[in-house]
Amino acid sequence: MQEEQPLPETELISCIWQGLISSIDWSARQDQNEALALREITNFADIIEPFCNGPKTEVALINTVQVYCYEDTRIIKAFPQILKVLYNKDCISDQAIIYWHQKGSKPQGRQHFLAATAPLVKFLQEQEESDEEE
Fold first, then answer.
1. Are 121 and 97 in contact (CB under 8 A)?
2. How far apart are the C-alpha atoms of 82 and 79, rounded to whole Å?
């Protein structure tokens, strides 16, 4: 369908995320939802990764995940771990996460998500600095 009626990549990545996340069976106990989400996202990161081809798309994916976590409070606390999974699976880059944290985040739950991801962003910035020094 993308070839016939192309969607902008930033919208396409959001559609893919929504389709994949809606396939999760949330019937698990409440205390297991975060682990379930991380396991499922790890599994479908390989589907998302080919569509993450640029900083704009990566930041759009982070914003899509942010808004999803804000609206679905079952996994709101898993947001930093979800970013870590997407980062480790090469769906999003360290630059995309840092940019999102500095000025690209959505207003929905911004303060909560910025505070929750501060340790991850600090780690990525330190990694970047040590790479520059070498």
1. yes
2. 5
Instruction: Give how far the C-alpha of residue 132 lies from the chain's centroid of Cα atoms, to the nearest Å.
Output: 26
| CA distances for 92 relative to 3, 25, 31, 77, 108, angstroms | 24, 25, 27, 19, 20
Closest CA to 43 of 60, 20, 66: 20
Q: What angle do CA 71, 72, 78 make, to 5 degrees?
A: 115
State the pTM of this model: 0.89
pLDDT tens-digit profile of 72-86? 888 999 999 999 999
C-alpha dist (Å) from residue 78 to 51, 71, 116 = 23, 13, 9
How much of the chain exceeds pLDDT 70, in percent?
96
